[in-house]
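hey
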């Protein structure tokens, strides 16, 4: 196991390699889910696809049983932002669904999320998805060895604000990850740069902007899980788990390790594959 340096779990290269294996299970499962999203499918059916994909890869779904969560994915539709419980809801043309997924390999975690349109959605929803995904990559791309955690936060907020009037959730944030899904430090999606713990080799972070077409305010439904926007505005959520090596960034849950998106941002790729 990694040791805790002032509360931060620092992984060895071998442990990061195990996280890469978990990340690939998550990345492949999310691609399978993306291609499974269509009008008429239920969120429970998507959950079954995910559990089968994770288990047949020899991994364990990390969400299932986490604080009592009853499924292998979170499925959050339209004004649901995160933590939606899969069930009998049937996806309809014009919906948007955020799917969050986590897997464990040899005790090491990967955690990632995508938002997918069900057929045609309004242009503003397509824009929301684009801005949210880009903000996630800008956040990852702002991370440098020797920098600080909120360099990521600041890059996310700056990009979102530059793109229009959006709500950035403040009550839910990214996080450290490794031998557990949720570890210190918090990785907010807003704020000033240059604060928080130093970014060092062996630290792994899940970066996950949650962005709305309205305000940042949310409520939790009576199921005690589903986070919805208070104003009913639709939301998007993208997430990747990444680490920094001496060469650059390595996005452990991206199938290409983040190579393509990082190259677009001019950020060196630091993966070992
Ligand atoms: Mg997640
Ligand atoms: Mg997460």
């Amino acid at each position: 196991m990694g040791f805790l340096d002032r509360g931060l779990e620092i992984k060895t290269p071998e442990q990061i390699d195990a996280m890469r294996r978990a990340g690939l299970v998550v990345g492949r499962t999310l691609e399978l889910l993306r291609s499974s999203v269509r009008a008429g499918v239920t969120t429970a059916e998507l959950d079954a696809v995910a559990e089968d994909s994770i288990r047949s890869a020899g991994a364990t779904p990390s969400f299932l049983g986490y604080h009592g969560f009853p499924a292998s994915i979170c499925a959050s539709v339209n004004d649901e932002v995160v933590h939606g419980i899969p069930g009998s809801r049937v996806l309809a043309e014009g919906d948007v669904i955020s799917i969050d997924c986590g897997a464990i390999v040899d005790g090491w975690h990967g955690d990632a999320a995508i938002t997918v349109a069900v057929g045609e959605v309004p242009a503003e929803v397509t824009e929301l998805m684009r801005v949210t995904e880009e903000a996630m990559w800008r956040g990852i791309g702002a991370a440098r060895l020797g920098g600080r955690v909120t360099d990521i936060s600041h890059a996310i907020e700056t990009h979102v604000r530059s793109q229009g009037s959006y709500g950035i959730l403040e009550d839910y944030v990214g996080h450290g990850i490794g031998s557990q899904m949720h570890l210190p430090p918090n990785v907010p999606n807003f704020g000033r740069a240059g604060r928080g713990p130093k970014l060092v080799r062996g630290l792994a972070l899940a970066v996950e902007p949650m962005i709305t077409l309205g305000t940042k305010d949310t409520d939790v439904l009576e199921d005690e899980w589903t986070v919805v926007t208070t104003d009913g505005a639709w939301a998007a959520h993208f997430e990747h788990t990444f680490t920094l090596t001496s060469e650059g960034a390595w996005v452990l849950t991206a199938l290409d390790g983040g190579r393509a998106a990082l190259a677009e941002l001019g950020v060196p790729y630091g993966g070992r594959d």
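Residues 13-36 form the longest helix (24 residues). The helical segments are 13-36, 43-56, 123-141, 149-163, 259-264.
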